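Changelog-linked ticket: alpha-L-arabinofuranose example.
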Amino acid sequence: MKKAKLILDKDFAIGQIDKRIYGSFIEHLGRAVYGGIYEPGHPLADEQGFRKDVIDLVKRLQIPVVRYPGGNFVSGFNWEDSIGPAENRPKRLDLAWFTTETNQVGLHEFVDWSRKAGSEVMYAVNLGTRGPDEARNVVEYANHPGGSAWSDLRIKNGAKEPFGIKLWCLGNEMDGPWQMGHKTAYEYGRVANEAAKLMKWVDPTIETVACGSASSNMPTFGTWEYTMLDECYENVDYVSIHRYYGNPTNDTPGFLARSMDMDEFIHTVVSICDAVGGKKHSKKKLNLSFDEWNVWYHSNEQDKEIWKREKWGPALPLLEDVYNFEDALLVGSMLNTLIRNSDRVKIACLAQLVNVIAPIMTRNGGGAWAQTIYWPLMHASVYGRGTALRPVSESPVYDCADYEGVPYMDTSATLSEDGSLTIFAVNRDPEEELELSADLRDFGDLRVKEHILLHHDDVKAVNTEEHPDNVAPVAGDTGRMDGGKLTITLPALSWNVIRLEPAQ
Ligand code: AHR
């Protein structure tokens, strides 16, 4: 049996985890909103038309923040279309996804939904087809107490109290030629700076997120960040980055190593932020908002067919990836990567939340169920709070097409205020279990409270409405503690959550 080692120590702290790294994303895209969170007439819809079964699944994830309303959608969106009596709202062509947007769910409804789901809204403004003027107006509408045209309109529309939206995205993926209103880095940097400046004059308590690269493989990655930050550094608080991975060649070891790219991506963007800060002699440090990340490739071909058949239809079933077991393992490693980088990554959003490349699926008029990737997100969000610890680990390694020296064991660890310790570990080995020996002497007398294990013999296994628990967590072996040393087995291809608590 292969062996891996881990040393954890209270003094090897990465820092306090910002709970917003367990955020998610709802875009007006496909069936995320219509048929996802909102389906009036569904037997489980509440008085506003929100599906209660979906809210229950979201609540179990304890999602602290949800990015909204896009995504590519936002770059052609008029936020004013989404307020006032629903029957008066216009239907618009959405050029991002070639669908028709009915605007039946808008700003007020989404704020209400997110409160029901126990979450906060992270709102994106349109810096594609629009600019600083519309951006400052929506901040005034949402956050100003009253006595101005926009804030009084919010009150007239039924919300006496301001929404108090704290986090604002300055557009979406403006480096991408597919984006409506695509800009050069300099053009974007100027617009983002002016928009953020005006938005913060309206409400100085908000935080703003500038668009970094849409992916680490964009040709402009690096120069984009440097050039745009040179223009807007002092008025922004976070740099947004996005990354999706796929396994189209069916190379599981190579696919499971992709989190190493995510790690490098984070380190490079942090370095560029600090380089621009250094050049400007700024005392301010920018952090990252990894506000789109996931596996995305299963639905690509299907989407082309949908557009051939039904372009411009409302709520087309787009980006409906059905996730398998190996996807859940990569999502687990991506969560480990976020935890290990939580000193600089303060916000992250699994993209997306319902139906569209999502952990939660629904059928119109039918059930709602958890996809495979739901589980690692839930475990990290619920048990991965507190202080992130720097794991000092040793693991056997393997080579694959894009990486050498990929550790079979990928791990992260968190320490809660009550002294409980959680170890998250993926075993990437397709053949063999790993015997993990963890030195935990610094924590005194601990006992294993629980070992949660996600494993399936078939890496392509999925969950469906009929078989929602095909890939679901079970109790794993709790190993043995001996003088501050834990010895425990990580089965071949597995996601493990080892929860330890002080032994009383
Ligand atoms: O999440 C799906 C899409 O991916 C988003 O709209 C866009 O920002 C990204 O390209």
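Closing comment: Example verified and attached. Residues 367 and 466 are 9 Å apart (CA to CA). Residues 27, 70-72, 172-173, 214, 242, 292, 351-352 surround alpha-L-arabinofuranose (CB under 6 Å).
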